[in-house]
From TrEMBL:
InterPro entries, alphabetized: Metallo-B-lactamas, RibonucZ/Hydroxyglut_hydro, WalJ/YycJ-like
Annotated ranges, domain Metallo-beta-lactamase: 23-202
GO molecular function annotations of the record: hydrolase activity
Lineage: Bacteria, Bacillati, Bacillota, Erysipelotrichia, Erysipelotrichales
Protein name per the record: MBL fold metallo-hydrolase
Keywords noted in UniProt: Hydrolase
Pfam families according to UniProt: Lactamase_B_2
Length: 240
């Protein structure tokens, strides 16, 4: 299994997971121009995506859905196109992939993260959640790859010029995971199988790459894991 993160952050999100010639895409935010450019860099077209998995209906995750009508669409929330409804904790198959959605906690009616297994390796993709339930840790343990939100540092967030209402939303149970919260979750779920961790959906104003990495690495304390940070507008490659 390999993955390519095309964009990660409040201005757009998109990630491709590929195995045995089948390509899944998680979310499709940003602009058509940006996605077209990134696809060209990896020698792909929109039509090469076999299935599109939506996490929730905020525009930074769904803005380019209309360009993936040739793909099979999966979503926990209502789309204006034909799609298959995703229900948290009800697994489904696509090609050789087993996909297990778990409920996330965000300020939207329906939102999920995805646990994706190709029969050999497992990838966990979770962003846009104020917290992760203890109940869900059992499903998240022992994955090969984690792409997990590490959105902000609370002190840096409070120093920004954002309205207090926005700061309060981000810090709430329906907001976004902080660096420390991400690290604490990861410390409970990584094991000897874990190869790579990508910190995702990082705030450009309320976080710093070095700070996020140091905070999470100190909590996880595993020198055998490769840690990376996904950028807002930059390709990142991982997996085998």
């Amino acid at each position: 299994m390999k993955y390519t993160i095309l964009a990660s952050g409040s201005k757009g999100n998109a990630c491709i997971v590929e195995s045995q010639g089948v390509r899944l895409m998680i979310d499709c935010g940003t602009t058509k121009k940006y996605l077209t450019q990134r696809f060209a860099e990896i020698d792909m077209n929109f039509s090469d995506i076999d299935a599109l998995l939506i996490t929730h209906d905020h525009t930074d995750h769904t803005s380019q859905v209309k360009h993936f009508q040739e793909s099979t669409l999966f979503s926990p929330s209502i789309l204006n196109w034909e799609y298959q409804h995703v229900i948290p904790y009800e697994s489904f198959k696509f090609a050789h992939f087993d996909i297990f959605p778990i409920k996330t906690s965000h300020d939207v009616q329906d939102s999920v993260g995805y646990i994706i297994c190709d029969g050999y390796e497992t990838l966990v993709y979770i962003t846009d959640t104020g917290y992760i339930r203890d109940y869900d840790l059992q499903f998240l343990k022992g994955a090969d790859y984690y792409i997990l939100e590490s959105n902000h540092d609370p002190e840096l967030l409070m120093q920004t010029r954002r309205p207090y209402s926005i700061k309060r939303r981000i810090l709430s149970d329906t907001g976004h995971l902080s660096n420390e919260e991400a690290g604490l979750v990861l410390s409970k779920i990584v094991d000897a199988n874990t190869k790579e961790i990508v910190l995702a959906h990082m705030s450009e104003e309320a976080n710093e790459v070095a700070l996020a990495l140091s905070t999470v690495q100190e909590l996880v304390d595993n020198e055998h894991i490769d840690f990376n940070v996904a950028k807002q507008f930059e390709l990142m490659f991982g997996g085998n």
